[in-house]
Design goal:
- The radius of gyration is 21 Å and the shape is elongated.
- Helix 3 crosses helix 4 and helix 6 runs parallel beside helix 7.
- With 403 residues, the protein is α/β, with parallel strands linked by helices.
Length: 403
């Protein structure tokens, strides 16, 4: 929908992945996202900088002289594909008093077009590179308007932002971070309904909560993603938390493990990301601020995303009971397609109760990016240990698809 005086934009004007269409809830399963053109979508993304839109010094017209374009250019070639960012960080949020998109930072004066125009340049660059604009309306504890229902100036604010940016394909709306610090459940539902009604492209809508695995909006028709904060220290704990949460979701919404404190970098971070993905969740890394992030860490995220998008992950769910031989975690559509992972595989990865038949195998060395494809292998079935090909090291991933 369009507000009076707002302009429409051509569909899919993000060029880099032209033809894929906008992000939507997957028609195959609400547990995952897809593109409206049918392509699968896996998210492995930078969970910072939350203040992305406000980096740099504020200029007289409200725009910023920050490094946003440089951050996008650093992220784009790595395959990591999202940035967690906030529209309103003032009014109780973690930002300064000018960290909002209003004229003179004053909500009573309405939205500032100079600020919104600059956001559009960054969002266009992100969209063209296939980077998800992970767009929070409110930072934690940020609150401008009260009440349980969205109305008047707040409704105009939300609708204006949705109408301004809905033309971007790679976009997820998130109502608020740690919503319960300031917003009631009723207000969050009203915000989600307002976003949904305004968005002609039906991009996914998420809600972020305080630490914990029980989602507060399991039956809300306008909330598609549980944006999770789960502050545990190990890959195994993250994995088991995601498995539990995936089962609780029962295919009604999807999971983004967006905030785990002390995530680490390098091997530690990579293992946590794979453990999260094999638990049935998307990955956003708290502390991955792009500016100070090693390119190799961004590439680890890109490899995870790229590998998953070659598989039928969007038909799968966690099935660790099928792990055999060196396999640690398994995501599967049993009988048809399997992804097995181990942080320290021996000579083989394995699967239990594999039907006999012909299979295509794709292997990834998660640490180096080396990939090996074995097509048309006849497997006898049963509990099967599949030897790792040469070039695949200890941290190994295997995709097995029945022909």
């Amino acid at each position: 929908g369009l507000l009076p005086g707002s302009s429409s934009h051509p569909a899919g004007s993000g060029g880099g992945t032209a033809g894929k269409g906008s992000l939507i809830v997957s028609p195959k399963s609400a547990a995952w996202f897809a593109h409206s053109g049918g392509a699968r979508h896996f998210l492995c993304a930078a969970g910072d900088p939350e203040g992305f839109l406000y980096r740099g010094t504020r200029q007289p017209d409200g725009s910023r002289d920050g490094d946003q374009s440089a951050l996008i250019q650093k992220l784009a070639p790595t395959g990591a594909n999202g940035i967690y960012l906030m529209a309103v960080r003032s009014h109780g949020g973690d930002g300064g008093p000018s960290e909002n998109p209003f004229v003179d930072s004053d909500p009573a004066k309405g939205l500032d077009n100079d600020i919104l125009d600059q956001w559009e340049t960054w969002f266009s660059a992100m969209d063209a590179a296939g980077i998800v604009i992970y767009f929070f309306f409110y930072d934690d504890s940020a609150s401008i308007w009260g009440g349980n229902q969205v109305q008047g100036p707040e409704k105009a604010f939300v609708e204006a932002l949705v109408n301004r940016y809905e033309h971007h394909d790679h976009l997820v709306w998130v109502v608020a971070e740690e919503y319960s610090e300031k917003l009631s459940k009723a207000r969050v539902s009203s915000l989600a309904a307002t976003i949904r009604a305004a968005d002609a492209k039906q991009h996914p809508i998420g809600v972020h909560q305080l630490n914990g695995l029980v989602f507060d909006f399991p039956g809300d028709p306008n909330v598609d993603q549980f944006t999770i904060q789960h502050n545990v220290g190990t890959a195994g704990a993250l994995h088991s938390g995601m498995v539990q949460t995936f089962q609780a979701a029962a295919g009604k919404y999807n999971l983004n493990m967006s905030e785990a404190a002390g995530y680490g970098t390098g091997t530690t971070a990579r293992r946590k990301s794979w453990a999260t993905a094999l638990g049935g969740a998307y990955v956003m890394i708290l502390g991955m601020d792009i500016a100070s992030t090693a390119v190799s860490d961004l590439q680890d995220c890109g490899r995870l995303r790229g590998f998953m998008e070659k598989t039928r992950f969007d038909e799968m769910s966690p099935h660790d009971e099928l792990a055999h031989a060196g396999s640690q975690y398994v995501l599967a559509k049993p009988g048809e397609a399997y992804i097995a992972y181990s942080a320290s595989a021996g000579g083989a990865l394995g699967l239990k109760a594999l039907p006999a038949g012909k299979y295509d195998l794709t292997w990834l060395d998660a640490a180096t990016g080396t990939e090996v494809v074995e097509s048309g292998k006849t497997l006898p079935g049963g509990d099967s240990a599949l030897p790792k090909p040469s070039g695949i090291g200890a941290e190994a991933v295997m995709y097995v698809e029945k022909k």
